[in-house]
Amino acid sequence: MSAPPATRPTSLIVPIRSLGPGHRDRIRTHLLALEGEDRYLRFGYAANDEQINRYVDGLDFERDEIFGIYNRRLELIAMAHLAFSHGAHAGTAEFGVSVLRKARGRGYGSRLFERAVMHARNEGVDVLYIHALTENTAMLRIAAKAGAVLEREGSETEAHLRLPPATLDSRVSELVEEQLAQTDYRLKVQAKGWADFLAGLQEVRQGVRDSRGKSGR
């Protein structure tokens, strides 16, 4: 029997890790790197640098969940914000995602959505909401493919996806994915450190050669 649309994974294997306060600066760099149109689609308005800085400074890593995809240079190329509701709206959450333009077309938005759905299920969320501009066809297509109901209201569209209860499989799958992503991140940190060391060594050698060349004149 096939899995429900909301939980059926893609064949794309992408390490996605949870982000904490220590990643705030990279989140800021990521969002500030978004171009004007991309900022408009992500936030629903043409967010300027000051507004993005306020958004990043206000991220609550204890309450919400932030997921990210890093490349080999430890550049955050895609991220998602899963905001949990409380009080009268407990049991619901809202999803938002951004992908740098140079990293588009690789399915990162879909993978981040799947990762967020898995975590939301395991946290007892019944309904996942997506508020998007109607022109944000990429995001709405991801939601519709997962089985979400789309309701258009003028220039905005709200998608809501009912989630199945958590299972042992969903809980174990999330633990495995997070461990793999943590390992991948540590390896990238080590690889970048080694690459930076070699680059620094090369600069020192070049400096020595330049110095010798000048002294031999």
TrEMBL record:
CDD domains according to UniProt:
NAT_SF (cd04301)
What are the residue boundaries of the N-acetyltransferase domain, all occurrences included?
27-182
Q: Which Pfam families does UniProt cross-reference here?
A: Acetyltransf_1
- InterPro entries assigned: Acyl_CoA_acyltransferase, GNAT_dom
Any idea which GO molecular function terms this record carries? acyltransferase activity, transferring groups other than amino-acyl groups
Name the PROSITE patterns for this protein. Answer: GNAT
> Matching SUPFAM superfamilies, A to Z?
Acyl-CoA N-acyltransferases (Nat)
Report what the protein is called. N-acetyltransferase domain-containing protein
